[in-house]
Amino acid sequence: MLKLSEILVSHQDIESFDELTPLIQDVARSGERFFRMDVKPPYPDTPEDWEDRLEAVFSGLIR
Predict the structure, then answer these.
(1) Angle at the Cα of 26 (from 44 to 6), degrees rounded to 5?
(2) β-strand partners of 36
(3) Is 13 strand, coil or helix?
(4) 45: Cβ–Cβ under 8 A, 6 or more apart, which residues?
(5) pLDDT per residue of the chain (63 residues) written in tens, 0 to 9
(6) Where are the beta strands (DSSP E) in the chain?
(7) What pTM was estimated for this model as a whole?
């Protein structure tokens, strides 16, 4: 299971929500099947609907 906190810790060079979304897509494409959003992304541009957006990116609804 992929946890958002693990991604954030291992990619501390990311500075925005917009940089995070392609990374989530890459992880999903690598074969990860489950995604848990255990923390809120700490970026100033994190939208109110961040959970829905990351779920859509992970599920492949946004390409």
Answers:
(1) 60
(2) 3
(3) coil
(4) 16, 17, 18
(5) 889 999 999 999 999 999 999 999 998 888 888 999 999 999 999 999 999 999 999 998 655
(6) 2-3, 35-36
(7) 0.86
CA 42 to chain centre: 12
Domain ranges of the chain: 2-59
For the chain, the first-to-last Cα distance in angstroms comes to 21
Chain centre distance of CA 35: 9
Radius of gyration of the chain (CA): 11
Neighbours of 7 (CB within 10 A): 18
Cβ atoms 51, 16 nearer than 8 A: no
